[in-house]
Each structure stands twice: as C-alpha cells, then as structure tokens.
What we know:
Layout: H1 3-9, H2 27-41, H3 44-56, H4 60-75, H5 80-91, H6 93-97, H7 103-113, H8 120-130, H9 135-143, H10 146-153, H11 160-170, H12 181-188, H13 191-195, H14 203-215, H15 222-232, E1 252-253, E2 256-257, H16 266-278, H17 280-288, H18 294-307, H19 317-333, H20 338-350, H21 352-363
Antiparallel strand pairs: 1-2
Amino acid sequence: MDFEARIAARAKDCPTLKKAILTDKNAKWRVVSALQKAIRRGDTDQAVLTASALYNSGEEGYMHRRLCVIGLEDIAFGDMPLLTDLFAYFSSKPFRLSLPPEIFLCLVRDMCETPIKDRSPNEFNTSFSYSPTDAPAKAEALVRSTKENADTFYNPEVLLSHRLAAGLAIGGALHDGNSNYKLRKRAASSTKLWREGLDYVPEEMAYVCSTALAFGGELTSLPTGMRLVYEMEKGYPAFAHSCPQPKPEAVIVNGLISPAFDMHTFEGKKCVAYFRKACPELVKWAEVNKIEDARSVIGDALFEVEGKWCDGRMFSKLGMELDALSHKAEAEKWGVDFVGFDQLMEIVTQNLPLLNEIRTKILSNRPG
C-alpha cells in the first residue's frame, strides 16, 4: 500500500491550523472529548479547532493516539482506506515528519466528512464489557494461559462471547477489576499469537489491527471486536442507508460542544445532577425504577442519545443488532430492564432543551 501517495492526495485544500491553545493542564480531556463528538457529528470547524488546540499545546502525541482510537471506535469498517491512512500516518514518526505538519488536519477533516461512520466493533466490546451475563466467559479467560486463550479466540466453533473474552485477555484489555498490570505485561509478549490469525483478512484490515496492537493500551481491545465482526459478517459489513435521527441540539460553551463537558468535568456532572432534579419526568422515572445513582444512569442515557450521535450514519444489520445489545447491556449494568432504559433515553431526548439551558447557566460562568 502506497501510504505516502494516498495521504498526499488527501492534502488538497488543507484546513488552516487555528491559534487555539489549552487553557489549563486538565483541559485536554474535555477538548479531546469535544474532538470526538465533532468528528461523529461531521462538524469540521469544531474538530479542526480542538485538534489545533491540542497540537499547539504540545499534546501532539496524545492527540495522535486518540485520533486512532476515534478511528477504530467511530469509523471502523465505514471507511477502511481512511482508517488505514490514519494508522499509517500516526504510527510512523519518520514518515510523519517527511510530510507537511498540517496534514493531520486533512485527516481530521476527512474523518468528519466520510459518508459512513460505523461503530459496530466498538458496540461489540461495549456490550460485552457491561453485560453481567458474560461474567463466566471473562472469568474463564482470566485463568487460561495465553496459548489457551489464543486457541479459543481462533476457534470459530466457540461462542462469540468466549472468543471475545479470550481476545481481550490476549491483548491485556481484560482484567479482574483490581489490577491488570500482569495481564498487560503478559500481553506485551503475546502479540505474535494475536497476529497469527490475521493472515487471511484483507491487507488493510490486518495492517490496522496489527498496528493498533503495537500501540498497546486502550487500542488493544478494538481490533478484537473488529476481527470478530468481520467473521460474523463473513467479510466487511454491507451497509444500508438509514435516515439518521435528528441532530440533538447542543450549546457551544467556551468554544467546545457541550456534551464534551458532561462526564469529564465537575461542572458537567453538576449540570446532569441539576437536570435530574429539574425534570419531573426524570424524577418520576428514577422513583418508579428504584434507581439509587440516578445521575450516573442519566449520564449514560445522555451519552447514548447525544454523545454517540453520528451524522449521516449508515447501518449494517449486524451493527443495528450490536447497538441494541449495547443498550441492553447498559440497562443490565444499572439493574433496569431494556424497556425502562429505552424510556429513559426518550425522556432525555425530549428534555434536551432544558438541559441546554442548565448547561448555559452553569458552564458559561467557567473562566477560560
């Protein structure tokens, strides 16, 4: 694959680097969250602004890593050439330095403007992570050797939940809730086993998965979901057009889209807490469902409704099933039935104008 030619071809009409900078050392968390929300929503101006702020503030390496995570979580099979170019650019510093520094903004722009955004591999991982019914698969994977997990992962006759658990254990992304240091250390010496099964998938997918494994950290779990989605679909997912839900309105606070604040800052959590008390439907829902930590449940529902919204998103049949499975797993996590969590998302959707009023009042007073 001629990455240099492909990436150079993307460099037409490159966006201009903005003069924005981070206002404090903790700002990068909410700024990178805003970057991801902007890419999902196809908001190129907001994405370029936030990417420029990270770049200008010396957070270039952190931004590169997060853009790769965003690519796997939100682009995935929707645009494999773009995902491949993204990993080629950010995984090789010599290659990156041979190109004009602003080219990363072209990749950010293309991530915003790609017509297909696919979250199916990420939904696979999310539904597994939250679902209590998959606890046995996780427990078994934690006590098996790396070789045994590799045998399980590459066996198509094994249940998918057990294969996913095995793949996550090999990558060091599965732990017992205490410390996963030993698992990550073990994973560092087992990437060869993980890669052995990639020789039959398309070259660009094998490249993305193996490069993500080399990055390590949070990037080790996403190739596992991608690999299994590929097998479930017997190839790349076939996408069908789907009219997206109306775009949730969100206020811009201090230059950033408001959903980026909600669970990343004290003020954002304060907004959700006020929202819970100010909305009668939410008060009643929490009482009926006997929810103790209502703020956290509402925060999760808000993320489902607003934070995960993608512009022009297209669905595969499997992707829709995995999306529903992810909702079911989140409901199980909070001890709510699927219908109850669906009702909560509907209440949140209908009352977003009220939440935005609260955000404007609370967050607009934050300096910087």
